[in-house]
């Protein structure tokens, strides 16, 4: 009997960095499978949309899309029965100048969150690309373990930067939370005034 | 922004009108851009006003746009991180 217990595969958690198969954003002209001719054809988005409108082509298509195995940081784990993760892609910085990398490192570029190298499972200088939000199915994580993990403070900064990048209107949420905290403070003050 | 002035008798430049930018390339890479003085003054004013704290619409820097474009075409790295992948695969 082996003394080593088999290691159970982990599942991605928020804040962890995992390798995953992630597609590139599709761009026209597309390469699609043509059912009638049984071959791939190149076709522009406008022509394709017209063919779908004219019902000469199905709106559900098989398309050739580039995919890369790459590290991502998990921003959201599956919501109940939806087996998908919301992630941000990591990008390497080696094509930038040393001045540009220094700017990213000191937080001067809101779209790039610096991770450096030799940490978080990254051997080369990397950053989280805030413009690269990607939805990934749970079966597209091939390693069974995380490459690294960002701490709570780093995730808070990422959350704030992502909200700004996506231009989310959080005014209503902030006002509601501010009103709740104000009410809580008033209640505590009332209790302090009236020890009964 | 450091500004160097070059007398016109030392270089040959095309006529540049307001709202135009002439990109000068070398071996397919962008090397310099010629713009009209009015546009350059606007650019300098924007830099003076916002510096590193660009407003939302201008918040994506050239560096971030380049990193994103390279990353989205799989060309952001000179060499794939086989060692990092191996560690995650517990090799």
Multimeric status of the protein: heterodimer
Number of strands of chain B: 2
Q: With helices defined by DSSP (H or I, 4 residues minimum), what is the helix count of chain B?
A: 3
The biggest sheet of chain B amounts to: 2 strands, antiparallel
Largest interface: A-B, 41 and 27 residues
The first-to-last residue Cα distance of chain B is: 49 Å
Low-confidence runs of chain B: none
Beta-strand fraction estimate of chain A: 25-35%
Strand order of the largest sheet of chain B: 1-2
Tell me, what's the shape of chain B?
elongated
Strand content of chain B: 5-15%
Major β-sheet annotation of chain A? 6 strands, antiparallel
Mean pLDDT of chain B: 84
User: How many helices of chain A in DSSP terms?
Assistant: 4
The total count of strands of chain A amounts to 8
> Radius of gyration of chain A, Cα only, in angstroms?
23 Å
Determine the fraction of residues in helical runs of chain A and give it as a percent range.
25-40%
Summing up helix and strand content along with how strands pair, one would put the structural category of chain B as alpha+beta
Task: Flag low-confidence runs of chain A.
Answer: none
Question: Based on CA inertia axes, which overall geometry of chain A fits?
Answer: extended
For the biggest β-sheet of chain A, the strand order reads 6-7-5-4-1-8
What does it look like?
The complex is a heterodimer of chains A (196) and B (91). Chain A is α+β, with helices and mostly antiparallel strands and 196 residues long. Helices cover 28% and strands 29% of the residues of chain A. The longest helix of chain A is centred in the C-terminal third of the chain and has 23 residues. The radius of gyration of chain B is 20 Å and the shape is elongated. Chain B has a two-stranded antiparallel sheet. By secondary structure, chain B is of the alpha+beta class. The longest helix of chain B is centred in the middle third of the chain and has 14 residues. The termini of chain B are far apart.
